[in-house]
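Supplementary Data S3. Sequence and C-alpha cells for construct A.
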Amino acid sequence: MNERLVFNSIMAALLIGGVATGCDGDGGTDGGTIVLDDADIDTGTGDDDSGTEPDTGVSTGMCTLPARVGAPGGACRSGTACLPGNDCLEEGGGPVMTRNVDGTNGAPIMVTFNPGGVCSPACETDADCDDCTSCVGASAGDPGTCASNCTPTATDNGMCRDGYACGFGGTCGLACQSDDFCKIQDVIDFDGDGTLDGYLIDPDSPQACDTTTGRCGHPGTAGAVAGDNCENDWDCEANGICITGEGWPGGYCARLGCEYPGFECDGAGETCDVGNFGISICTQGCQVGAEDASAQAGVGGGGAGCPTEFGCFWNGTGAADANPNGSCIPAEYNDIAAPNIGTRCANSGDCYSPLGRGRCLFADEEEGLAGYCVVSGCVGMEVRQVMPGVAVDVDICPETALCVNFGSADAPNPLCVQNCDTGDDCPTGFACANLLSGGGGLCWPNCFEADDCPGSEMCVTQGTTRACDADGPDNMPNTDDDEICECTGRGAAPPDSGVMDTDAGAGDAGV
C-alpha cells in the first residue's frame, strides 16, 4: 500500500491552526507534531496500526513463544484460545472491490486480514498491553489493539510473524500481499451506505511489494531530496513519501524511519527529525534560530534555509552549532506583533508568531469551539531559547507563562502555555486545572470543580447545564463513572477571536 496513505491519515492530525480538545497524555497538541491516533483504517504496509507478534524463537525473553500463546499479539487459529481478557481477532479476508483513480472499475484485490489470528484486549494506551506489545489504532471512542513490538530493518520483516511487516512506528502490521496491494491510494464507500468497502487504486503507480520486508517501495525520482515539491510518493527519493494537504503547499517530500540502521538520511541538506512528528522522518534541514530579525515574525517570515512560511524547528538531536540541526516545517507567520499567550482563538492565525510558533491550543473548528494561544518550541524556563543552547531576540515563553512538554522524553513537544492559580487567570471557558506534578495549574478545557472556572462560570457536565460530578458517584477520580466537565463559558469561538487580528473590531475582545 502507498505509504502516503498511511502518512496522510496521520498528517490529518498535524494541527497547524487548530487542536482537538482533550486531556490525553499527548495533549492533542500541534506545532509540527503528528498526533499518532492511528485512526486510519488502511491495511497497514509499513504501518503501525495493526499487527501481531514477533516470530517464535527469534526474539528473547518473555516475548518468545510458547510464552506468547494466548497472550496479546499471539496467534489464535481455530481451537487456540486466548488468555482471559483477550479477544481473538480471527483471520479473514477475500476479494475486495477496487476503483481506478480515473473512475473506472478495477479488478478485485485478494486481501487476508489478521493472518493466523491475533489475541488482543481492547486497549486505549500501552498500559493496557504487556511489555511485548503496544496499543495501536485507538482513537476517541474506539479502542485499539495490542500489536507486537519490533525493530524495522532494511533486509527482513523485523522478526514479525509471517504475514506481517515491521512498521516505522516499531510495531508489526499487515504485510503487503501483492504489487496491486501497494497501489492502493485510499479506502472508499462504493454503495454510499457509510461503510468503507473498497479501495481506490492507481494502476500506474510504480509501488511494488517487497516480499522480504513486507513493505511497499518504489524507485523514486533521481536527484530528489526531502523538502522537494511533489504530487506522488514516487516524485520523491526512493521509498520516499509525499506529504500533501492543508498546510503543505505544493507537497513535501520526506522519508520515514531514519532513526533505524539502513534508513539513514543521505540526500543533500536532509536531516533526521525525531522530535516533531512522533516518528523519525527525513526532512529538509535548516539551522535553528539563524534567521535575521526581519524573518523571525510577520507575514513572509521563514527559518534560515527554509522556504517562506516554513519555520525551522529543532530536530531533537542536533547540537546548537550544527547545521542542519532543525527541520523546515510549515509555520504560522502572520502580522500579529505582540505576545498573546492565553488569549482565546479560533485558529493559529489569531496567535502571536515568533519564528512561526504561535498555535491555537484546544480549538476545534469543526465543532466551533474556541482554544487559547500558546507558543511552541520553548526550552524549560528559558524565555528566549528555541532549542538547548540557542536563543533569539524575541520572547518564546515569557515569565508570565510556563513551558510544558506535551510529548514524551523521546519525542518532546514543548509548548508555552498559560499557567494559573485560579480560574480568573484563564480565558473564558477554560478552567484552572491542577495538573502539574509539582503543584500549580494550567488553563485547560476541562474543569474538576466549580472553583476551577473563571468568574461566575459553573463547572457543568459536558454539553449540559447540570452541575458536574468529576469523580462520579463512587467519589474516586479516574474511574469509569467519572463525568466529563467543562466551564459554562466553553463554547463557540467568536468570528474574530484574536485581540491582535488585523480585522479586529468591537467583538474582538479575545476573552
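Construct B, processed identically:
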Amino acid sequence: MQKTNIENIPLRILEEKGLPRETFGMKKYGVGFYYAYDWKKRILSRMSPTSAKEFEKYLNENKNTAIIGVYIKFIWTNKSKFWNTMVTRLKLPKLRVVVPDSEVEKRNAVTNPFAARYLIPWAGEHMIRDYIEALEG
C-alpha cells in the first residue's frame, strides 16, 4: 500500500472518515503573496509557464510607459521601503530607517505602476475569455 501524505488530503475527507480533528492540523503555514511591490521577474517566476507567457504578452500589449511621472512618484513615495529592503538583504539592520505611520499610509495610496499593477486586469480578461469559451463550448 502506498504511503499517503496527509498534507495533500482535504481535512473534510479525513473528518468524514472518522479521524478526530485533534489528530491533524496542529501547525498553520502562511501561503499567500503580496504582489504590490513585486517586480516583473519575480511575478513571472511564481506563475506557471503558460500563465507567465500570457501575462508577459498582456504586459507588452498594455503597458503604458508614457506616464513617467507616475513611476517617479511611486519610487519616491516608497524610497524608505526600498532602502529598508536593500539594507535587510545586505544584513545591515542598523541602517534601516523608521517609517512613521503617516508615510506608510501615503505609500499605500500610490499604486505600483510596474508589472504588479497589471495583474488584476489581466486576470479579469483571462477569466472572461475562459467563461466565454466554456459557454460557447
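The radius of gyration is 21 Å. Residues 32-136 form one domain.
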